[in-house]
Design brief:
Oligomer: homodimer
Order of helices and strands of chain A: EHEHEEHHHHHHH
Number of helices of chain A: 9
Largest interface: A-B, 45 and 45 residues
Largest sheet of chain A: 4 strands, mixed
Radius of gyration of chain A: 18 Å
């Protein structure tokens, strides 16, 4: 059984890994969500971070432990798990294409985060609110339609129901999570942009309806979106 | 022969791919650096970008074409090329570890870029200079020592001359490029931070002395750092 180590109070980048595991019905040890007296909590995460725990450590969570393999970086963890969980095709070109798409999703996640922390991750939102309002405007007006348009066009060209064509793969789960997060953080801007990308919306709905995922999303294992995570709902950033 | 397609006037993210090819002595078609009348220039890049060219396209360059395989996203392109060029070990755990490290380098590249464009990539530096000065301060004082410290510790724990141990792999080339870029952009801050990370400095020097790379770095194929790239030298951001 693999172990996932991620901040226990947010979805964050760990959620992109959790979705693979949940969709496949895999058992996994969500270490930091155990009670503190059973080795969970923030201390479990810090123990694997740079400079604080036994090596090989990563700069930041999510961390995956699978026997002797310890890995960090969300797209690398997904690329490692996907063949084991059956959520990527066997051939190398498709695997690389899946990695490319997950990296593109990760880039958009970063940009969505930076709308509320444009100056520094070390400062509170309230201390960079004026800059965040400017950053969010450019994100809403320029980046959001451009990014979603890329995925719309990718789906159109793939010629099937999924990003890689006829079969689902892990970037489909990633795009679902991106849409869900954008709808939470910037509901007005997200709906406006998604109005122009019906294939992206249909993919989101198709993924959300997968039985194992639907059960997960309705469970207490799915941490609600909140204002400590990547996708934060600050109404002043939604135009 | 593979084709690399990247903006012809900057090192940018394409340089991380070029270093793999150059170090291995591979022949490659650096498409956009051909004269425009021979299919080069910006038009060559735009032809592969989202919405503008034939699929499967990527959101942004670098793009790699290898026969039927078309790929985007720098870390994915490196992960694809590395086994073919002999710059990553054969076993899967080492390949995933290399990908993790390259992704961590890519994250630091993003942060270095965002110091001069904290609010929006769509606006000029001059229009976000006050915010950039604030962002650069936090980058210099907090992020730079933390990131370089991570690589120092990784080298220490690897127990050899390279990030994966005794054998060089492509993240070593990436870390070389990161150090070179930081020294160009923020010479004072970089020297101060690198003073605490002697293993990172030694790795940079070891990579720079590799014969094929030394020849490349001295050639006209190496585009000089400049203020259109990721690493820009704006003295006001260097403290």
């Amino acid at each position: 059984m693999v172990a996932l180590i991620y901040w226990p109070f947010i979805q964050g980048r760990g959620e992109f890994v959790r979705l693979l595991l949940e969709d496949a019905g895999a058992e996994y040890d969500d270490v930091a969500r155990r009670p503190e007296e059973e080795g969970g909590g923030i201390a479990a995460v810090r123990g694997h971070m740079y400079g604080e725990g036994p090596g090989p450590a990563g700069f930041a969570p999510p961390f995956l432990i699978d026997g002797d393999v310890k890995l960090a970086q969300m797209p690398a963890v997904c690329a490692y798990l996907a063949p084991r969980l059956g959520c990527v095709p066997d051939d190398e070109a498709a695997r690389m294409r899946a990695l490319q798409l997950q990296l593109t999703i990760a880039d958009m996640v970063d940009e969505a985060h930076d709308t509320h922390h444009p100056v520094s991750t070390a400062r509170y939102f309230e201390d960079q609110k004026a800059e965040a309002i400017e950053a969010a405007r450019d994100f809403r007006e320029q980046r959001l339609p451009k990014w979603l348009g890329f995925f719309e066009r990718t789906l159109e060209r793939a010629g099937g129901d999924y990003l890689l064509g006829s079969e689902p793969s892990y970037p489909d789960l990633g795009l679902f999570q991106l849409v869900a997060g954008l709808r939470y953080a910037l509901p007005r801007a997200a709906e406006a942009a998604l109005g122009a990308t019906p294939r992206v919306v249909a993919l989101h709905d198709r993924v959300a309806a997968r039985p194992a995922l639907a059960a997960y999303l309705a469970s207490e294992r799915r941490i609600p979106f909140n204002e400590d995570g990547i996708f934060r709902h600050y109404p002043e950033l939604d135009g």
